[in-house]
Amino acid sequence: MANPTPFPNVARDAATWKFQQSYVERLMDHNALTAAHPDDTLILAGPPRHLNVTAGALASYLLPLGMMQQLQITQQLPTTPMQAIGSGRIFYVSGKAQGTGSVARLFVNGRNLLRALYTNAVTAGVDVTKFDDAASTGAKHQYWANLDSELFKIPFGLAVFFRDKIHDEIGAFYVELCCLNTWAVAVGAGQTMILENVNFMFDRLVPISTGAFGAAPDTYNNYAPTAPSNSAVFQAVFNQNGVQPNEPGGPGGADVIDNTPR
């Protein structure tokens, strides 16, 4: 027989709220599959401005950044509270949003953090040896460190992709016109790693769509995190259709368990 346990409701307004019987706003039975997680987040360095190109062309101008340990992006909207003579109420006036960010990355042999962030300058053909103040040295120019170099007057961009465990896109944004203001590296006795850290300011943050970047379209399951899915397999797993997979009418086959005493 069908499982008599009622399927959890979703309270979408105050009238339907029953805190022992419902989630609030959205279905949470499958939240472990649909929540954002650092494992499913990708950070990429690229040009100062986001280019409106197809998902397949992203790989030609964005460099995925590995060994990332921390990313923080903050937007602030300068807002001033105002009053007017003759009224006790407050109103507000706002300016342009201002953004800052910080990145921490493992310090290893190969491209260091500054070199990776400025991949746009390299792909554009900028010769880092031609600046009056050198940004790097060595045959491969993999290690960049001198913020006084004219190189670091060139802005860069960052893309951030968020996916869930079933490959659906949760969100993505592009941080435009990033300019560095600090770079730091610290070494301490007994520590297990050395990190590079940079802080930067940026012009604006633009929401973008990544499409099928990083996965073929047929790997997307589209389980609709805000509502019960139409997927027969998904409904069977979470018993949304009222029957178990091995019951008559269930979408799956029987999983026969032999309980015969041995």
In short, what is this structure?
The protein is mainly beta. Helices cover 8% and strands 29% of the residues.
Question: How would you characterize the overall build of this protein?
Answer:
Helices cover 8% and strands 29% of the residues. It has four helices and twelve strands; from the N terminus they run E-E-H-E-E-E-E-E-E-H-H-E-E-E-E-H. A hairpin with an 8-residue loop joins strand 6 (79-82) and strand 7 (91-94). The longest helix is centred in the last third of the chain and has 6 residues, at 232-237. It starts with 8 loop residues before the first strand and ends in a 25-residue tail after the last helix. Mean pLDDT is 81; it is low at 1-5 and 243-257.
**What's the β-strand tally?**
12
Radius of gyration: 26 Å
Largest β-sheet summary: 8 strands, antiparallel
Integer average pLDDT: 81
In CATH terms, what is the fold-level topology of one domain?
Answer: Pnp Oxidase, Chain A
The CATH architecture classification of one domain is Roll
Alpha carbon gap, first and last residue:
28 Å
Global structural class? mainly beta
Number of helices: 4
Descriptors for this entry?
Pnp Oxidase, Chain A, eight-stranded antiparallel β-sheet, globular, single chain, 4 helices, two-stranded parallel sheet, mainly beta
